[in-house]
Amino acid sequence: MLSTLWLLAAAATGHPVLVPRVVVVTAFPPELARWQIRLPLNDELPFPGGAGQQNLAWNGSLGVLAMVTGMSSKNASLSVTALGYDPRFDLTTATWLLAGIAGVDPMFGTVGGVAWMQRLVDGTVVKYLDSREMPQDWETGWIPVHRDRPYGLPQPTPTERAGSVKLLNPRLVQWAHNLTQSLELPDLEAFRRLRRNYAPTFLPAMQPPSVQMGDLVATDVFWTGPAQAGWARNWTKYWLPAGGDVWGQQGVFAMSAMEDFAVAEALDALHRVGRTRGVDALLVLRAASNFVQPWPGHHVSADMDFFEEAACEAAFLAGSEVVRRLVARSSKPADLEV
Ligand SMILES: *[C@@H]1O[C@H](CO)[C@@H](O)[C@H](O)[C@H]1NC(C)=O
Ligand SMILES: *[C@@H]1O[C@H](CO)[C@@H](O)[C@H](O)[C@H]1NC(C)=O
Ligand SMILES: *[C@@H]1O[C@H](CO)[C@@H](O)[C@H](O)[C@H]1NC(C)=O
Ligand SMILES: *[C@@H]1O[C@H](CO)[C@@H](O)[C@H](O)[C@H]1NC(C)=O
Description:
Layout: H1 2-13, E1 22-26, H2 29-38, E2 43-45, E3 56-59, E4 64-68, H3 73-84, E5 95-104, E6 114-122, E7 126-128, E8 142-144, H4 158-164, E9 165-167, H5 170-180, H6 189-196, H7 203-206, E10 211-218, H8 226-239, E11 253-257, H9 260-272, E12 282-291, H10 308-327
Parallel strand pairs: 1-4, 1-5, 5-12, 6-10, 10-11
Antiparallel strand pairs: 2-3, 3-4, 5-11, 6-9, 6-12, 7-8
The protein binds 2-acetamido-2-deoxy-beta-D-glucopyranose (NAG) (4 copies).
């Protein structure tokens, strides 16, 4: 049935349908640049239906397609959906890699480090009371939509959790982490200067950059500061109780970014109509461009230390290692074959 559809699509456009093995998803042009230049992805395909206002980048002999979605959850989901319905492509066998930069919790990792995400928690659909107007004994004004107080009991039901949590495929994520865990990531003098400030409270922040695994909170807000970082840690634990899913362990807030949950949601919707393998075929790699809170004693400011280029480099180094393996089919473990 599917092959009939490809033929129809091909007939309608007069072009053969392209069958990417891997789709690399980025949110803004600096995240795409290294893939284009260094994988390389030299062919450009127009993509006016996406929100990124960038051409798709393609390498037919590798079978790798890369896109810029535009920042924010709405741009990410609408762009992935537009690609999913684009008759030029058959995406039913593709593995997807979201590779971008993010804020890192200094209790989890450090700038220049990367993490393969295990679970994605939505932090955008919430109830909110301003801290000046909420009850005095509350720790935060950010409340789960199905409750009337922060982290309100009872614990989220499986249905509620399904709406706010995306579980990535443990075998695929662990395989990607295994492949990259001994990678040496660039360590800059500027990283060392910044991370020294986090001593002695934040041990993970003080380590050199490395490849980790963790959980992500997605919001459309560039938030920063210890209060909101405390919320993100508690929110992750609330939604990901120990033993609550295939990953088993209680949630550990690692990174903060915008597009991840939305991309997973779009892939699942495309899966329901037979156009992708859904979130099961998604890898999310985030590279830390900044900490989500300043070091102890330092004032909170919207203008934080930010290492965009270095983080894009780290995301490419770890991500491209995995993409090269994914396209060299024989080196993929048998049970990850589609
Ligand atoms: C595709 O990748 C191969 C191997 O890296 C490279 O030699 C070739 O030039 C690339 N082609 C395009 C169109 O980017
Ligand atoms: C989302 O996409 C629109 C349309 O391309 C663009 O104007 C807007 O700046 C994007 N939003 C963000 C946050 O990048
Ligand atoms: C990852 O590595 C661990 C330890 O070497 C191994 O037990 C596990 O099977 C590997 N997982 C995958 C999916 O490759
Ligand atoms: C997070 O949880 C801890 C431990 O229960 C609590 O002390 C803290 O006030 C909470 N912070 C926020 C912002 O919710």
